[in-house]
Amino acid sequence: MEEPTQLLQFLMCLFLFNWNSFGSATELDDYSDRPEFKIEGKVFVASKDKEWTYNSRVVVDGGEYLGFVRTDGSFVVHGVPSGSYIVEVINPNYLFEAIRVDITSKGKMRARRVNFLQPSNVKTVNYPLEFRERGQPNYFQKREQWRLTDFLFNPMVLTMIVPLLLIMVLPKLMNAADPDTQKEMQNQMNALNKGPSLPDASELMSSWFSGGSSKKAVKPKASASSKRK
Amino acid sequence: MAKPIKAVLVFLCMISLHSVNTFGLYEDQAGLFDWKQEYVGQVKDFHWDQTPSQSGKKVFIASEKNVVASVNVHDGSIAWRRIFEPSTRGRIDALLHQGSSLVSIHAGGQFVRSWSAPSGSLLWEKSLSDDVDSRASGFFIEKNKKDYLIIATSGTLYCLKMNDGSEEWKAELPHSDTIERWYVTERSDNSFIAIGITPGQRVTITSVSSDGVVSKTAKNVPAPWIDIQTSCIIMEDDKHFVCYSPQTHSLQTLGLDNVTVFKQTELLEFPLTKESKIEGLVPGLGSAIKFRSASDRLVFMVLTPQETFTVHKVLEKTYSAEIVNFAEKYILLTLTQADAETLQLTARDQSDNSEIIDLAHSIPFAHYHGPPVKMFPFLFSKKKDSSHRPGCKLILVAQDFSIHFAQKSKSDENKSHWRREEALAYILSVLMVDLPVSENQAKFEDEFGTKEEDLLAMFYKRLKAQFSQLRGFAITLVDRALGHHHHHTKSIDAIEEEEPEEEDLIRDGFNLHKIIVVATAPGKIYGIRSHTGKIAWQQFILDLVPFSRYDTQKLHLVLQRSTAHFPHEPQCTVLGVSQKTGNGLLVSFNPVTGAILPRHQSQGHDTGFKVLQAEMLVDMDSDFLKGIVLIDDKIKFHVYPPTSKSILQESRMQHFFHLINPDTGFMTGYRLLPNTDGEIDIEELWNLDLQKSQQTITGVYGKRAIEHVHSQGRVLGDRSVLYKYLNPNLVALVTEGEEQQQSSVSKGPTPFFSIYLVDGVTGHLVYHQTHKRSKGPVKVVHSENWIVYSYFNEKHRRSEIGVLELYEGKEQSNSTAFSSFYPPPPPLVLRQSYIFPVPIYAMEATVTEKGITSKNIIIALKTGGVLSLPKALLDPRRPVIPTPETMEEGTIPYVPEIPLSTEALVNYNRSVFNVDGVFTSPAGLESTSLVFVYGIDIFYTRVTPSRMFDVLKEDFDYLFIGGVLALMIILSFITQKLAAIKALKRAWK
């Protein structure tokens, strides 16, 4: 039972050893007595309800260091060594702007706006940090709703309505004008109606059931079986 | 003139960018396709809520996963939960609870936090020490009617006021540089005695007065056997300190007043195991301890005046025992096994050894939880009864990390019963398995099964299948007519609250419902229904532990046979390490039912060698089973199951594999060579030295085997085709290292990382890229012809995402099959990197049935969101200056920062933290990809990267369309009639 754990330990030692050989000695010394500082601030949310403080986290560099918001909105992140960090307040129901905090090796703090494009561009903000609610996130898309105005002002509908108006209104206007044109129109209409128009419903039914009844009777059954697939 | 055109172009591109970004959920879809479960982790510290009005309604749990949580006792749901850093900073050394105070001590006293017990909000926080490797401890005291908190860090003893955390006094303890842990207790005269442990050397004893003055004399006692994990305890009389030393199989006793050596008590009366430890004090027996000898044996031992221990009582076949002081009586509660699926709780009055019947309780407890490890009873007197009979709420922690609650209820229905499967916070590998088709459909498929049958037999089969379908339809009709729903009689064993409904485990029309098979670090395997998140089955393999190297744990989970081969059952296999032997351990099971193969029952199959590498074969044997090739630590070759070996010998394909050794930095390629006498040899082919002295290999990423690439190339703006470099053997390697700075203003070494693209068959280095002044952790997604990786840019101090795309060029060298031996000319590598504003836990690309749908990258953000990011935004062909040609191609102009929209967060406000990985799987619908995110929370959803193009939207308005259609038909008939009348009238004129 001992063997695998020993092997593991050995491997770990090997790894640690190699790790140490990477880092220079100065850095190791640095680490042991590197001073640690704290980041302080306050979160402001318009809501009177204190519920939001329970699920808010103050996240430094994506969770490397964490802070928790007290019921009055203030927070402290302890034990942060000198460096440059991005401090964010995370709450699923509110949005906040992230702030970059620089801590010098002597513990001087500077807070500034996050600018990923030009990191050297400094626009300082107040320290202790102040996070103000910047609205609530919208996670969902709006569903399209059917409205009459949308329908009427749809270009497709408009293009259909205009010719319709032309067809309906123009003949009426021309009606009174000239009996000749009226006659001409009538001829045209007759010509249009002469051809085989839509079959009558009763005719349609009778033709269906007389001619192809044997063929059609199979059809519903086949569709029923395919439905159950 | 050129300017306005450009502006228009940019505007159009912005519109296209916008359209790319709008893949959101609708509000009414929330919770329809997705679910989230929250977990706590393995219980480390446990307290019943003692707040006067809330007593026994909640429990407080501190876990191995650095979580403090409050769990409601009535249903096991989490009331509140606080997650700390996964690093040592978040480690919980102690969780203290008394009255209404709740205090957690972290990382050797670096943080002391006081929580409001009902809501979990932070009351105050203190930072006391920065020695994170030591262990801090603490306890409550009362002085002048005020509560104080005593905390011992490695160097100092603090006394804090409980109400605001302000310091009352502090005392510097001696030998703070070597001591890693202090045991402190308050004596009857309100002074404190502190015992400090220097691992491997000695213990130091000192005393501190009640107002924080350390006595000058610190006594050192040599104890070379002691370390930080040794189980020790200060006896009830505050005069003795006892430790269990596993090396000498004995208890070591130290008198704190005047003795200068440890006195040894050999433990010979009972066997000792690796579980042996001191579990605690025994109240009511004078100076006695409770000692665990094995997982099912406990021993009470009493301290004699000679400072040795004698056995008072041995509790055989007892998993856990507690002595509780209730109503001025000492009650001994013991937990024993009644039968295979039941535990028995027995209560005895210690004064007269009589059994208290009211508390006796048999608890259903399934075998797949392993033995119970600890129990936490809570005794109360029933107020409703005038007789004030005692009642007991019991919480059990089992070896598989599960938390069980049991309370005896009047009607003996065991209704007040729940459990939390905390092993699900330790998921290491995931598979999604198709559910089997229904019996009818299987018969249908059987029709086309065999080729050698003649026409008549096939016709007969078809008739038979259709008849059975007809019968099934008739039966459902009859059922519906009678209003007879399948009433499942309540399953007899009350443990199975999931109520296995057989008909439920059948594939749905679009194959969207799957079984999610997960393998977890404690050796538990679960099958989870993807559409509800409920556990379909579970198995606990006691011996199974993950491969663990460099702080990463791995379990190999493969699907050897899918559900497509109907008469044969599907088969999944987990490969891990046997806890007993350290050899490889294989467990094969049916992923749908969870049944373990008969010969693997409960223990799995010990391979008998240490496994270095395992890979599943592509070819199936005669039983449609894909074999697993195992390479042992002596580079010898094994196949599981052994019958698959013939496949290797017969197959004309050559098999290659490669091993990567992070200790030496070598990547070595091998070939399997079937030789004449039926055996298979291994031949070493090539070696790649990745310069261990400068960098370490941190990750190897191949392509997913199930992935299909639909399109061989990309159509450019000028209608020519840019062919993709689709090498299935391409492997991406990531190495990280540090380089010394050349310049004089040295700020120490700067980190860098490299990406190598290597052909896994020939060892040919296809591409290599180094990012200077950038560091990991590097997360990589490798799919189709591209690689996406995230890293941290130290120079600009921001997270970035890089993308590499490989193209063969305008001509394809071989359109039918890719061969690593006759590779196309070196690929064209396009690359770009983008600023990604949020750090990343993990990422994975979506995968669909046929690969037609465009890809999204699912990214688990450290802000808790799960982002579905279109790959089109991570396209290295995004032009800096858009031209009509790039517009034609449809690429989005280059913007250095990837825009994150909250609409693209597929988990909306259900944040997931400490994510370990993301798993994606295709569904039966081409448009849909299933996503499973695991970590301390598990989250499942489905995404449609190109929208639902193959099904009607679920908000499709059938009524409206149907109504319009009907109206049209009716109108046409009416107008026809009207026209006929009009024509008639005109004819009469």
SSE layout and pairings?
The complex is a heterodimer of chains A (229) and B (989).
Chain A: H1 2-22, H2 25-32, E1 36-44, H3 51-54, E2 57-60, E3 65-68, E4 74-81, E5 83-90, E6 99-103, E7 109-113, E8 124-125, E9 129-132, E10 140-141, H4 148-152, H5 155-175, H6 179-194, H7 201-211, H8 213-227
Parallel strand pairs in A: 1-9
Antiparallel strand pairs in A: 1-4, 2-3, 2-5, 5-6, 6-7, 7-8
Chain B: H1 2-21, E1 25-26, E2 35-38, E3 43-48, E4 58-63, E5 67-72, E6 78-83, E7 92-98, E8 101-106, E9 111-116, E10 122-126, E11 137-143, E12 146-152, E13 156-161, E14 167-172, E15 181-186, E16 192-198, E17 202-208, E18 219-222, E19 232-234, E20 240-245, E21 250-255, E22 263-266, E23 277-281, E24 288-294, E25 297-303, E26 309-316, E27 318-326, E28 329-339, E29 342-349, E30 361-364, E31 372-381, E32 390-398, E33 403-407, E34 417-420, E35 427-434, H2 439-446, H3 455-482, E36 514-520, E37 524-529, E38 535-540, E39 544-545, E40 547-549, E41 552-554, E42 556-561, E43 571-578, E44 584-589, E45 605-606, E46 611-620, E47 626-632, E48 637-640, H4 645-650, E49 655-661, E50 666-674, E51 680-689, E52 695-701, E53 713-715, E54 721-724, E55 730-739, E56 750-759, E57 765-772, E58 774-783, E59 786-793, E60 798-809, E61 828-835, E62 840-845, E63 856-861, E64 866-870, H5 884-889, E65 915-922, E66 929-935, E67 937-943, H6 958-988
Antiparallel strand pairs in B: 2-67, 3-4, 4-5, 5-6, 7-8, 8-9, 9-10, 11-12, 12-13, 13-14, 15-16, 16-17, 17-18, 19-20, 20-21, 21-22, 23-24, 24-25, 25-26, 27-28, 28-29, 29-30, 31-32, 32-33, 33-34, 35-36, 36-37, 37-38, 39-43, 40-41, 42-43, 43-44, 44-45, 46-47, 47-48, 49-50, 50-51, 52-55, 53-54, 54-60, ...
Helix pairs in contact in B: 2-3
